[in-house]
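User: Please predict the structure of the protein below. I'd like the answer in structure-token form so I can feed it into my own downstream comparison script.

Assistant: Understood. Taking the following sequence of 444 residues as input:
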Amino acid sequence: MKFIKKRKALAPLLAVCLLAACGGTGNNGGSKNPGTSQNQEQDSITVTFDLNYEGATNITQEVEYNDVAEEPATPTRDRYTFTGWYEEKTCEHKFDFELALTEDTTIYAGWKLAIAEVTFDLNYEGSENSVVRVDVGTTVNQPVTPERDGYIFKAWCVDASASSEFDFTTLINEDVTVYASWEADDGENWTLTYMWNYDDAPNNGVANKVKVKKNTKTKSYAAERDGYYLKGWYTEPECVNEYDFNARVSASATLYARWFFKDTFETEYVDYTGKIGYGYSGNVSGVGLICKQKEAMQNASNGYYAGWSYYEGTTYEFVINAEEAVEDAVLIGRFSAEAYDMTFTPENYTISVNGVALSYNAINITNVPGMGAGYKEFADFTINKTVPLKKGENSIKFIVSNHDRLGESGTMYATAPLFDCCRVYSDTKLSWNPLTDNVNGNIS
């Protein structure tokens, strides 16, 4: 494929000058040689837009020799996001529509999986699989426990041989098949009945029923309810005594879900007064630390996030009001990273509530594209499940508490995440005063 920069005005002028230099008049004083570029310019060029997946119908376009192709309407494809037109099938270099064409050319569509399919394979002859679609970068809900005559369901596994269980907290980034594992039912078992435990719940309030072999352990059922967080399963509707899933099942039981409200507090709406931000090759101030996501696949919850945080002491504070005091709120941070894989611990990234630093497991952000190579999607990371909130005003702070420089050059003077939002799950009403005017200006 040959390209030259398009310069329409220059070509005719250059041709006249060349004719004059050779003694031609440009009208009837010079001879024409067959096969010259003048004849070639009369030929058309075929441009093929290859949609680049099996079964797709290509688009063709005819353009004049030494002219540019016109970018067609954005194509669509089930479950995929279009990423642009590329020079090669492997989609490494974007095609430049300002380049003139001198020969037939094929241009290739690029795609990125947006919706993944999770297949639940019941893993025995004659069974029917079920398929669930989820957004890439999110988790899949655990389905209701399947039934099979003469068998007890054990777990969902990563392979047909049931070598290891599937983790339902895993982020789904590609099509996945999950396999059921079974054991023979000898009649020696108990039944756990899981109740939704809220008004007007479906299926007469029953979320799931599970048969468990006597004197064995079982795992909690990960029920999902829109807008709520499952805190745990309890032995009574009032949710006083939590069921112990670490103990062996000794009797049939009815369990009741305890639900927390889900509240999201956007980082772009906190106070940026006096903030200075540092990035790879410069610095910003105030609301300049707020970034607009570059592509939908970043999955920023409100389309914005806080960047430029690569400096020790950079702090994001959420001032939240609680209607009642609670002792076991769940705190979530929604993070991503750019250019480098990063790990955050209480030693290099402090998260505090009302001045008390929280303990939390390491936050590992891996498989981050290199500088300029794309974006890592945001994901929720559980910070702590027993966060105390007092009645009235509470302060939640996320603080860059290191000076671990990223890269040998530039101004990334500390290791810090891209910060989308803070989520708090609790059984009390929460409120705050978001500074929504922060994003009314020009956000890059």
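That's the full token string. Helices lie at 10-21, 37-40.
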